[in-house]
Each structure stands twice: as C-alpha cells, then as structure tokens.
Design brief:
By secondary structure, the chain is mainly α. The protein is built from 21 helices and two strands. The chain has a two-stranded antiparallel ribbon with strand order 1-2. The longest helix has 54 residues.
Length: 581
C-alpha cells in the first residue's frame, strides 16, 4: 500500500516536472526553428506555414521533457542530505542572476529575449557552480560504503533489490537501477584507487567521468526544472516584461495535462489504498512512509541483535577451541610423566650421582651453577620430547581458529542476509564479502600462539624446570655438602687441606662418596623419589595451567579483533581523499 502511494506521487511529480522543463526548453526551440525558417524559406510560402507552428517538434520536445524529468527524479533519489543543502543554498544566487541580468545581456540582446537569456545564463552558471560544489562535497566530506573486495554481481543485485523497494512497479525498477549504477561506479572508483587491484587506467577514467557526468546532469536537470517553474509563473502572472513568448500548443497541452492529472488523481483518491491511509489508525504508518523499511528504533534493535548474535557465535567458537586445547594439553602433559621417570632414573643412578657431584664441586669453584645443570638435564628428559607435540598443538589450534573465524563469517553473513531480506536493514557492504574480509584479518594476525606471553615452548618449560629443578638441586646439594663434611671429619677435619679447604673439600667429598654403600643410594631413592616426582609433576601441572591460560588469552584477544573487524565492516565507509582517489 505504501509503495503504491509513493509510486502515485512520483508519477504526478513526473508530469509536473516535465511540464516545467518543457516551459524552459520550448521557447528556445521555437526561436531557433523560426529563425531558421525565416532565413531559409520564403515569407508566405507553404513550407513556412507548415513548419511555423512546429507541432511535431513540440511533441518531440514533450517526450524529451518527460525523459529529463524521469532522470531528475531518479538521480535526485540518490542525493545525500548535504547535497540537497548545497542545491538549496544556491537558490539566492540563481534568483539574483535571473532578476538582475548581466548588463551585457541587456545591451546586446533583443528586449524580448532578455528574460529567456537571463534564465539560460542563470541555469548554466549555477549548474557549473553547484556541480563543482557537489563534486567537492563528495571528495572532502561525504562517505560511501566500502565496496572493495565485493563480488560485483552480488553487489549490483543486492543494491538493485534494496533500491527497488523505494518505489512502485515503475519507479522501483528505476531506483533499483540507479542504486546499482551508483554502487557500480563506487566499486570501480574504489577498486581503481586500490593499488592491489591493478585495474587499467581507462577503467578508472571511465568511472570518474561517469561520476562527474551524473553529478553535473543532476544539477543541470534540477536548475532546468526550476527555471521552467519560473517561466511558467511569469506567464501565469502576466509579467510581460519577463515572460517568454506564448508557446504554440501551450493551451492544448495544458488542457491535456489537467485531464490526465484529474483522472489519475481521481483514481488515486478513490482507491482502497488511499482510503485506508486516511483512516486514523493508519496515520502512524502514513507518517513513517519516509522510511520504507523499518523505524530507527527497530534498526537499533536489529543492530543490537546482530551484535548479540556475533558475541554468541564468537564465544561458541572460543569454547570449541578451548575444549580442543584442553584435550591435547592433557594428553601431552600426561605423556611427560615418562620423561620425569627417566630423569629420576638418571638422577638416582651411580652415573648420574657422579655427574652431579662433579658439577656441584665445580660450582663451588665458580663453574656452572649446579641448579642450572639440573634444570638443563630435566629439560633434556622432559621438555625436549614435548616441544614437537606442543608445536603441533599450536599449529592445530591456529588451523582451528581460522576454521572458526571462517565459520563465524559465513554464519554471521547469513544472519545479516536474513535480517536484510526480512527488514531491509542495510549495513553498508555486500554480505558475501564478510568471510573474505575476516580471512584477510586472520592472515594479518599471524601466529595466535605467538601473541601469548607463555606460548613459547622453551620459555614455558624454563619456569617449570626451574620450579622442579630447585627442589632436586636443593636436596642433592645438601646431601653432597653433608658427605663432604663427613669426609672432612674422617680426614682429621681438613688438616691436610689447610687454607685450600675450599678446593680440597670436593675431593674429600668424592672420596667419601666412593666409600658410600651402594645400598644407601637405593634407600635414598626409595625414601625420596616419589616426593621429588610429585614436586616435578606439580610444577608441570602449573605450567600446563599457565600455558592454557596464556593460549586462551591470546585467542580471546584475537577473537576480539575479529569481532571488532566485523563491527567495523558493518559500518565501513569510504571517503575518496582519505582512502584513495
């Protein structure tokens, strides 16, 4: 019903605007033809009498006026509010030129043509000024949806469907074509400005030329219609000094136009759609016809629903990644128990004890730290076998994240598509480009695990080995020191060492160790092995928790970037001088 009402108003406006354009163009057509006939034909001849009234020429001009009016309505439907402000702001200058014609016109042109010449000059001058202003406004201020990366076919179809909803059967098609044309021009201009697209120079020139032609044509048609309105008012008010000459066929054409508008208006006024609009309960709908889709409140609600849908989908994706990570981390850290047992086997072996004793003795002389040695041995038995598995985990999680982002893009694009199909909510960019946009964002993030402060394999294990190694080193160092002291007492408390007791003590400790019963070492293992294993496993468990938290923190931040990218994508705008020209 609303579309029919809008279509009826537009058809009426079409005839009125065409009538005004005819009023402006016909006098010039009349004068040119009659001047030609007066110059090339005989006065009183049959040919001059036949062509003097120019009935066929006026009929052809009427058709041209209808086409011009149709183009004006279609082009004007795509004007932004600021562009309308520019046109209306130029009105005083237009009237100033018309009312106060330049002196050269008054001096050089016949008095009967001064009014027509003033209109002509005013239209030309103001058209040039406003066309430049409209282009400058578009360059410096106005923003358009960013169509780069769009599928051109899907873009044109979606814009056509959106534009066609603004009118009825006739104007809906024209508005849809105009929306497609506008989107297509922006797509080509934006793509030509993007260095990665590498479009031919001729394509860019064609797009910009078409853009300038449309802006200039819109301004020219607007001022032509306004000039025709002034010409009509002058003739109607009887302003002989300013009015153009009476046009042949004006009376017949005016009578025909009145009949057409009367019949059209009568059928419109008595149509069920109009009568229903006049009922009180329909006044709210009538007031909201300026938005043929939904109210601003509904749009805000739908955008909130879109944000909620995006959050739910992203949280679900993060949940699946976390579950995948937990399963693999559990398996990896459980497999570390074998490495712990191998380390403890070495630690309590005779070879391991001798190796540790030598490093401990050297550390007393300023050599390698005994604790660092223990940590490096733990890393060789425990962390080294796990590094490959954790590296594979990072790659697997990266692939899973990319899959989730791609799935999020498809699902959210489908959701937005359903919103637009249902309520014609427009977010400013063709929906099919969202998955491609997110794919570029994901690629730009690089390794998500690399964003984690705890994700580097060796860095994470360094803390785990440090915690576990401290317990082992402290217990072993105490035992070595105790045995060195025992060896020193049995050797007359270091009398033989004298001032070199620091150097001599490790040798005495080694001698004491050689005299230690092998069964004592076995007993020490039986008493403390499980305790040390528990300490190491707890350190690894803490490492697992911190690693999981670090990874999920990194993936959560990455998903926030994806959400922000989607939100920005939904409102993405393109400004020519800012984003490329």
């Amino acid at each position: 019903m609303g579309a029919n009402w809008v279509n009826s108003v537009l058809v009426a406006a079409l005839f009125v605007i065409a009538w005004f354009i005819y009023q402006y163009q016909a006098p010039w057509q009349l004068y040119r033809r009659r001047a030609w006939l007066a110059h090339y034909t005989q006065s009183g001849g049959a040919l001059r009498r036949l062509l003097w009234r120019q009935t066929f020429a006026m009929l052809l001009l009427s058709v041209q006026a209808l086409i011009a009016a149709l183009l004006l309505i279609v082009f004007a439907s795509g004007l932004e509010r600021l562009e309308w402000y520019v046109l209306w702001a130029a009105l005083p200058f237009f009237f100033l030129i018309v009312i106060s014609p330049p002196k050269i016109l008054v001096r050089e042109i016949s008095p009967t043509l001064v009014a027509l010449a003033s209109l002509r000059v005013a239209v030309i001058v103001i058209t040039i000024i406003t066309a430049i202003a409209l282009v400058a406004l578009t360059l410096f201020w106005l923003e358009a949806p960013d169509y780069r990366g769009s599928n051109i076919r899907s873009l044109l179809l979606s814009e056509y469907e959106a534009g066609s909803q603004a009118g009825g059967p006739l104007f809906g098609v024209l508005f849809g074509l105009n929306s497609s044309l506008d989107a297509g021009l922006w797509f080509v201009m934006q793509s030509a400005a993007d260095a990665t697209m590498a479009l031919p120079r001729g394509v860019k020139i064609f797009a910009w030329s078409s853009f300038l032609i449309v802006k200039t044509a819109t301004a020219a048609l607007f001022w032509t219609a306004l000039a025709g309105f002034l010409a009509f008012v002058w003739a109607f008010r009887g302003m002989a000094r300013l009015a153009p000459p009476r046009l042949p066929g004006n009376g017949q054409m005016a009578f025909g136009l009145v009949i057409v508008l009367t019949l059209f208006g009568s059928s419109f006024l008595y149509s069920p759609g109009w009568l229903s609009l006049m009922r009180p309960e329909s006044l709210t709908q009538f007031a909201g016809l300026q938005s043929n889709c939904v109210s601003p409140q509904k749009k805000r609600q739908m955008k909130a629903e879109s944000a909620q849908h995006l959050e739910i989908q992203s949280n679900a994706g993060l949940g699946r990644i976390e579950s995948r990570m937990d399963d693999q981390l559990n398996a990896i850290y459980l497999s570390a128990e074998q490495g712990v047992d191998e380390f403890l086997d070495w630690h309590y072996s005779i070879r391991g004890q001798y190796s540790q004793l030598g490093v401990w003795a050297a550390s007393r002389l300023g050599g390698q730290s005994y604790e660092s040695f223990i940590q490096s041995r733990m890393a060789s038995y425990i962390s080294a076998p796990m590094e490959e598995k954790l590296s594979a985990l990072d790659s697997d999680l990266q692939s899973a994240f990319e899959f989730e982002v791609a799935s999020l893009g498809r699902q959210h694009a489908s959701y937005l598509d359903s919103l637009m199909d249902e309520d014609c909510l427009q977010f400013g960019l063709a929906v099919p480009t969202l998955p491609a946009q997110l794919a570029r964002t994901t690629a730009g993030l690089g390794s998500i695990a690399g964003l984690s402060s705890y994700a580097a394999t060796r860095l994470g294990f360094r803390f785990a080995m440090q915690r576990g190694g401290q317990a082992v080193a402290t217990r072993s160092a105490s035992r070595f020191a105790s045995r060195a002291a025992t060896s020193g007492v049995s050797s007359s408390s270091g009398v033989l060492c004298g001032p070199m007791v620091v150097v001599c003590a490790p040798v005495l400790a080694a001698g004491a160790w050689l005299g230690t019963d092998w069964l004592i070492n076995r007993a020490d293992e039986a008493m403390h092995r499980e305790e040390l294993k528990q300490v190491i496993m707890e350190a690894l468990s803490n490492d697992r928790v911190e690693r999981a938290a670090g990874l999920m923190g990194a993936y959560s931040l990455a998903m926030e970037d994806i959400e922000n990218d989607v939100q920005n994508w939904q409102q993405q705008r393109y400004r020519i001088l800012r984003d490329g020209i």
